[in-house]
TrEMBL record:
Residues 170-183 have a biased composition (Low complexity). GO terms for cellular component: mitochondrial inner membrane. It comes from Daldinia eschscholtzii. Keywords: Disulfide bond, Electron transport, Membrane, Mitochondrion, Mitochondrion inner membrane, Repeat, Respiratory chain, Transport. The keyword ATP-binding does not apply. This is NADH-ubiquinone oxidoreductase. Accessory subunit of the mitochondrial membrane respiratory chain NADH dehydrogenase (Complex I), that is believed not to be involved in catalysis. Complex I functions in the transfer of electrons from NADH to the respiratory chain. The immediate electron acceptor for the enzyme is believed to be ubiquinone.
Length: 183
């Protein structure tokens, strides 16, 4: 047995070192992992230029750019917070249903596709942001639009009185084009 007694410290530690004046302050997003995962593709769609600037800064500083890249990091945080705020403003019910589904299903996206489709449609209609998966296979429906997921606990069914789903659903942008009057 060890002679050293365990010491438990329950205090929250704060770094009191002030940041340089050249770095603008930013409010944290304040969201847990489920809402961030639910909104992640939309954050990626709107904030790509800021993310690219931040990653370029980190690359140029060989991964040691904590202070040097704070300004770019703050821009990424501000952009992500604006996306979350916009989704909360325009699509709160769909957003809440989707992230609560993710929270209840261990963050497994394929368990929450029906709620995700509703959220994607709302976000596209109101914010014109669409979920796209980088490097997805061409000529096949993207994984998030497939109606028969392999690993889902239960099949994705339509609401009562509607015809069954086909192999995949159309993305919101294709649905908007189909609904638009032809000129």
């Amino acid at each position: 047995m060890s002679a050293r007694k365990p010491v438990f410290n329950q205090q929250v530690l704060y770094d009191t070192t002030p940041l340089p004046a050249s770095i603008p302050p930013v409010k944290e997003i304040g969201a847990t992992s489920a809402p961030l995962l639910s909104a992640s593709f939309f954050i990626g769609a709107r904030c790509r230029p800021y993310n690219d600037d931040f990653m370029q800064c980190k690359t140029e500083n060989h991964g040691k750019g904590e202070i040097e890249c704070l300004k770019e990091g703050r821009r990424v945080t501000r952009c992500a917070a604006s996306v979350i705020d916009d989704i909360n403003t325009h699509c709160l019910d769909e957003f809440r249903k989707h992230w609560q589904c993710l929270d209840n299903n261990n963050h497994q996206l394929w368990q929450c596709r029906k709620d995700e489709w509703k959220l994607s449609k709302c976000v596209f209609d109101n914010l014109k942001l669409e979920k796209t998966i980088p490097d997805a296979a061409k000529g096949q429906p993207p994984v998030h639009l497939r109606t028969k997921p392999i690993y889902a606990h239960y099949p994705i069914l339509r609401d009562r009185g509607q015809p069954p789903f086909g192999k995949a659903i159309d993305p919101p942008s294709a649905q908007a084009q189909a609904d638009a009057p032809s000129s």
